[in-house]
Amino acid sequence: MTAETPRPSGGGAPPDRQDVHDLEAILAVANRDADAVEHTVDCHFDVRFTWVYDKGNRSRLERLYEKAKTAQWNAQTDLPWETEVDQEAVVAANRELLGARGLDVDVTGTVFERWSDTDWLRFGCESQNWMLSQFLHGEQGALLCTARIVETVPWADAKLYASTQVMDEARHVEVFAKYLDDKLSGHYPVNTHLGLLLDDILVDNRWDMTYLGMQIMVEGLALAAFGFLHDATTEPLLKRLLRLVMSDEARHVAFGVLSLQEMYAGLSAAELMERKEFAFEAALRMRDRFLQQEVWERLGVPVKEALTVVTRSPERQLFQKMLFSKIVPNCKKLGLLDNGDSWLRDRFREIGVIDLEHLADTGEEFESLQIA
Ligand SMILES: [Fe+2]
Ligand SMILES: [Fe+2]
Asked: Which of 155, 181, 198, 215 has CA 20 to 30 A from 145's CA?
């Protein structure tokens, strides 16, 4: 398998940053159309037929396809939607688990010094509204990307499998939208960094870049974030919802790992380097997305000051790091850390996540996350 000749692919402008920790540069990227109800991405790519209906030729993809057919669930009937959710009570209970404010850091002399329990409770609720909103937008991104893969990937087994993922992602959009509408207290527009990343993935016309951006980076991060939230929440409906979604997501990440292993085996060092750079830019955008700048804006708190305080919190640092707990091992499995040179390894070291490389990769995790 050889790569196609890359064509110019454009993409959103990354922050103009001198170094990857430059908070000013990160915050300078503003949401371009926060009130829009539609967003169009100008894409140019080849749609591929294959006349070789070789189902089972790629046996591991075929096995995933067979698993996916029997693992479908119904968003309306397989979840206990009748569960009463008192958002404030849930946020308060979760804070109990995490410490006084869910943020173990000295706030003396900061904007938070005068914050009451009520302020922190409001922050907790807004934070949850924001988080679930971003999950929802990410799921729509996955829906579009997977539909795209059906069209562009040249392998029969991959087209069949990807079609099941389209249905999975529709279900995920459905459950997050319903949970936000029925159980929480507000929506947020797509975060700038997430929106730019989704645009970049869609604009690139090389079929494997859709996989790398969505299946490996966005879904790898989602799987880690869902797992963190699943373990942390005391709310039974959300716990069940996340468990069902995770059982699908693990399959999706495995689909990416299995497909790209084969694809990357045929790439030159220069072509691999383009994948490494793409992966790192995606990693930065996802890290920056979780700064939740829109929450601070909505609460009327100076964003930079809030972030300077919040990012000192050990819990926060651990959460930010663990978001990469699937991405780094999967990049390693794909050879992106070590093949050719150590460029991506060095970048992951720079943002403090390289020691996650020894965690289990997600090539087979879908087995353990299957729903009986
Ligand atoms: Fe999903
Ligand atoms: Fe997914």
From this structure: 181
By C-alpha distance, which of 187, 253, 248 is closest to 370?
248
Q: What is the DSSP track for 89-139?
A: HHHHHHHHHH-TTS--S--TTSGGGG--HHHHHHHHHHHHHHHHHHHHHHH
* Distance (Å, whole) CA 210 – CA 150: 11
The domain spans of the chain are 86-368
Report yes or no: 255 and 165 within 8 Å, Cβ to Cβ: yes
For residue 253, the ligand closest to its alpha carbon is 2
Cα 299 to ligand 2 centre (Å): 31
Q: Could you tell me which residues come within 8 angstroms of residue 90 by beta carbon, excluding any fewer than 6 positions away? A: 128, 233, 234, 235
CATH superfamily, domain at 86-368: Ferritin, core subunit, four-helix bundle (1.20.1260.10)
Distance 110 CA to ligand 1 centre (A): 38
Residue count of the chain: 372
Q: How do residues 193-206 score in pLDDT, each as one tens digit? A: 999 999 999 999 99
C-alpha dihedral, 330 to 335 to 338 to 340, nearest 10°: -150
- State residue 202's pLDDT score: 97
Work out the pLDDT band at 12, boundaries 50, 70, 90.
Answer: very low
Whose atoms come closest to the Cα of 176: which ligand?
A: 1
**Which pLDDT value is given to residue 107?**
85
* Burial annotation 343-364 (CB, 10 A radius, 16+ → b, else e): ebbebbeebebbebbebebbbe
Task: Encode pLDDT of 39-69 as tens digits.
Answer: 999 999 999 999 999 899 999 999 999 999 9
